[in-house]
Amino acid sequence: MGRGKRFTPQLFRKWKEDGRGTGTGTDYRPFHQVRRSDPASRGRSHLMGNTWSDRKSHLLSDGEKLGLIFIQQMPDLEDCLEQFPLSVESHRPFLSQFDIGVPYGFFQGTQAISESLNIRHPKVYGGGESSYWQMTTDFAVVFRDGSGKRNVLAVSVKESLPKSKRDGEKFKIEREYWKQEEHRWILFVKSDVPLAVRLNVTAISTWTSGRPWLPREALDRTQALLSNESELLIAPCLELIQKEFKVALGTAQECFWQSIWSGRIPVDLSRDLFRGAPLIRIEFSQFKAFNPIWSGVSAWPA
């Protein structure tokens, strides 16, 4: 992203005219993008493959990269729209772009919400103009629940927990935007995740993120194969998978780590998984708790 470039009303207007913030799946165009022509983000930017589309996700910080890794662990994930723009004016339901059967209606935009909360709406200035700042949510996650119903989880990401009153005011606007549609909003803070967990999930993502997953049957077979192993040592487990399934090492690694990441073989992620010691099996509920996004845990009070 370009250094020295600034956000202006004219730039936001051009992005909207170009269709940024519209579409779903492979056709989605993030509002903020990792491009040299875009103003620079404060964090380190990434273009990262994902499991639900053929496009790359535009991530503006290491925290967003970790967040996307955690999001890809969620079962029945359908879509994830990063850098999603929140409408300033009244708008149709978010899920109407996924399902024409969503009841017709309109919800308040960020301008009306800020007024109802008695909070000053952020603004942008430049070129002799001023306009309302285009607020965004870092991730709008679309997934199916156990009954097959579509659900939305809105996720904002920070490297560390903000402490300023102004940050809190903007969070209130964003949270209310999603709450009015009965969608959850959570704040994910990278520094809240223990370092060992961060290192482990980042390493595991080599075999679990940015690519289609193996068929469920392959992961179920891996789970059954390793269910009687008294010690989960990585090298022997990979050798066993190669031998039994007659696959190459790369495929064996995908079978092993995707079975772990999906919770079929839940292990303790707070321990160094790559030091040569056996992996420690734990209960699924304990394993899921390592992922605050999947668990729906917010760093911001309700």
TrEMBL record:
**Region spans: Disordered:** 16-49
**Can you name one GO molecular function term for this protein?**
nucleic acid binding
Pfam families on file: Tn7_TnsA-like_N
Q: Which CDD domains match?
A: TnsA_endonuclease-like
| Natural source organism | Stenotrophobium rhamnosiphilum
Domain of life, per UniProt, equals: Bacteria
Q: Entry's SUPFAM superfamilies?
A: Restriction endonuclease-like (SSF52980)
Limits of the TnsA endonuclease N-terminal domain:
112-188
Supply the name of the protein.
TnsA endonuclease N-terminal domain-containing protein
Which InterPro entries does the entry mention? Restrct_endonuc-II-like, TnsA_N, tRNA_endonuc-like_dom_sf
Provide the taxonomic classification. Answer: Bacteria, Pseudomonadati, Pseudomonadota, Gammaproteobacteria, Nevskiales
